[in-house]
Write a structure and sequence with these properties.
The protein is of the alpha/beta class. Helices cover 40% and strands 25% of the residues. The protein has ten helices and 13 strands. The chain has helices at residues 2-21, 37-46, 54-71, 90-98, 112-122, 137-146, 168-181, 198-205, 211-227, 288-297, and strands spanning 27-28, 77-82, 103-108, 128-130, 153-158, 187-193, 236-243, 248-255, 259-263, 268-272, 277-284, 300-307, 313-320. The strands form three sheets. It has a seven-stranded mixed sheet, sandwiched between helices. Helix 2 (37-46) packs antiparallel against helix 9 (211-227) and helix 3 runs parallel beside helix 4 (90-98). The relative contact order is 0.16. Bound molecules: N,N,N-trimethyl-histidine.
Length: 321
C-alpha cells in the first residue's frame, strides 16, 4: 500500500516535470517540488537569514497577537493548517487556545519530513491533540472538514505568505475553494508578505551566502536523484527577478550555455538555449488594502489585520460569510 503511494507520487513528479519542461515558450516547474527533505531544510535556513525577514515577521505577529486572534474565534474551535512547515510559529496560536479549551490540531502538509518535524515540535502540548495529513492542501482540508464534530468551528491557518506562490487570480480561486469547504462562522488566518523596495526584495531572494540559490538549484538535483536526470548543476545559476507588473519576485534557473538534458524516468530529452530559464517560483507581494478585497472576492470578510513594524508583513483574520 505504502509502496504504491510512493510510486504514484514519483509518477506525478515525472509527469509534472515533463509538462513543465516541454511547454512552448517559458519552461517552468511547480514550486511545490522545491520542498523535499533537502529543500525543506534549506528553507528553514533561509528563514534565519538577515536578508529574509518574512518568517520572523510572521512569527513575531503571531507571538504578539495570539491572545487577541484567538479571542476573536468562535468556540469550540479546531485548528487546521495548510503547509505547517516545522510548526514553530503555530505554537503561539495553540498555546493561546489551550488556555481556553482542549483542541484538535490538523496539519496538512505534502512534505513528510516537515510533517514529522511539526508533530515532534508540538508534541509537548498536553491539551492539544495532533492529527497530521500528508496531503495536498484542499484534499487534506476536505478530510479535516469531514472529521468536524457538530457545532465545532474551524480556523484554517495559511501562514508564511504561501498564498504568494499563486498568481493573484489563482490565489482568489484557491481561497474561494477553501471557503467552499468551510461553514459560515469559520475563519482563516492568512499571512501575506507586503510590498517593499525592489532592492530589499532582491536581496531577500538572492542572499549573499547563496542559500536561496542552493534552495532553487536543489530542484534540479532532486530531478537527478529521483527521476534519473543528468542536469549539470554547474551550468545552471539562480536568478531572482522582480516582476513589477505582477508585483512579484520570480525565481528562475538560467542555463549558462546551449545544452541538452536527459531525464530517464520522465522519458524526456530537453534542449536549453544559452540564457534560457526555468521559472520555478513566484512570490507575490500585497498591499494591506488589497487583502480586504481578496477576502471579499473569495467569500470571506477581513475582520482584523496586524502589520509588523520591522518587516512589511500582515496577518489577516478572515471570517467565512
Ligand atoms: C515559503 C513560499 C513563503 O515565497 O518567500 C523563500 C519560499 N522562496 N525564498 C517565499 C521562498 C525563496 C517562500 N514561501
Amino acid at each position: 500500500m505504502l509502496v504504491h503511494a510512493i510510486e504514484n507520487a514519483a509518477c506525478e513528479f515525472a509527469s509534472d516535470v515533463r509538462a513543465g519542461l516541454t511547454r512552448p515558450g517559458q519552461k517552468e516547474l511547480p514550486s511545490k517540488y522545491l520542498y523535499d527533505e533537502v529543500g525543506s531544510a534549506l528553507f528553514e535556513v533561509i528563514s534565519h537569514l538577515p536578508e529574509y525577514g518574512l518568517t520572523r515577521a510572521d512569527a513575531r505577529l503571531l507571538q504578539r497577537h495570539a491572545d487577541e486572534i484567538v479571542a476573536r474565534l468562535d468556540t469550540p474551535v479546531a485548528v487546521a493548517e495548510l503547509g505547517c512547515g516545522n510548526g514553530k510559529k503555530t505554537r503561539w496560536i495553540l498555546e493561546a487556545l489551550s488556555g481556553r479549551q482542549h483542541a484538535f490540531y490538523y496539519p496538512v502538509e505534502i512534505s513528510r519530513s516537515a510533517l514529522v518535524a511539526c508533530e515532534r515540535e508540538l508534541s509537548d502540548m498536553d491539551s492539544i491533540s495532533i492529527v497530521g495529513f500528508e496531503r495536498e492542501y484542499l484534499d487534506g482540508l476536505l478530510e479535516v472538514a469531514a472529521h468536524r464534530q457538530r457545532n465545532q468551528h474551524l480556523v484554517v491557518l495559511f501562514l508564511g505568505s504561501t498564498i504568494g506562490n499563486f498568481d493573484r487570480l489563482a490565489g482568489v480561486k484557491f481561497l474561494a475553494e477553501v471557503r467552499r469547504i468551510l461553514e459560515p462562522g469559520d475563519s482563516l488566518l492568512l499571512g501575506t508578505d507586503l510590498e517593499k523596495s525592489e532592492s530589499q526584495l532582491h536581496k531577500a531572494y538572492d542572499d549573499d551566502i547563496g542559500v536561496t540559490a542552493a534552495f532553487n538549484r536543489n530542484l534540479l538535483a532532486r530531478i537527478n536523484r529521483e527521476l534519473d536526470g543528468d542536469f549539470d548543476l554547474s551550468q545552471f545559476v539562480h536568478v531572482a527577478r522582480i516582476n513589477p507588473e505582477a508585483r512579484s519576485v520570480e525565481m528562475h534557473l538560467q542555463s549558462q550555455r546551449r545544452q541538452t538534458v536527459h531525464i530517464s524516468a520522465a522519458d524526456l530529452r530537453v534542449e536549453f538555449q544559452e540564457g534560457e530559464t526555468i521559472w520555478t517560483e513566484s512570490s507575490h507581494k500585497y498591499s494591506p488594502n488589497e487583502v480586504f478585497q481578496i477576502a471579499r472576492d473569495s467569500g470571506f470578510s477581513c475582520q482584523a489585520q496586524w502589520i509588523d513594524d520591522e518587516w512589511p508583513f500582515a496577518e489577516n483574520l478572515l471570517m467565512a460569510e
